[in-house]
Amino acid sequence: MAPERAAAVTPWPEVLGHLRDLLVAYALVLPVGWHQEREERSAGLRTFPLVAVASCGFVLVAIAVLGLRSSGQARILEGLITGIGFIGGGAILKGGNQVRGTATAASLWTTGVVGGAVGYGLYDIAAILALVNFLTLRVLGPLKQEGPPSPPPAGRRVGDTGDRV
């Protein structure tokens, strides 16, 4: 016996609306993905748009199956938050005393929210988050690199090469 479907046939205007939402989610995060790719980060031009489109898709499916006012919407959002956090965790690398990739992980999380907001039709929130995400990486990233020099490791002085006589 075949499983029941949410709808036998989806009307074309609704299909076009879904396509529009998926394309908007994709386009909004493309600048962030492009920037991260250019900076040679662990996630870039493919990952960011895919996270946004997947988040938007999960929300669109949840609305179609559960309805907009269902308590199941909260579970969908919880799953998205957890899943994207897992993907972001993969972008964080630790080597010695350095941890890298936290901005990429946070940016991936924000990208998921952008896709989810588009899925719910909250285009203003999606656009603002996408802009803040991009500007934070683009403007604040170079400022971080130009900041004060890191202190020498414990037990060493500036200019100490570590050679012992």
TrEMBL record:
InterPro entries: MgtC/SapB/SrpB/YhiD_fam, MgtC_SapB_SrpB_YhiD_N. Residues 145-165 are annotated as: Disordered. GO terms for cellular component: plasma membrane. It is found in: Cell membrane. It comes from Roseisolibacter agri. This is Magnesium transporter MgtC. Coiled coil: none annotated. Keywords: Cell membrane, Membrane, Transmembrane, Transmembrane helix. It comes from the Bacteria. It holds the Pfam family MgtC.
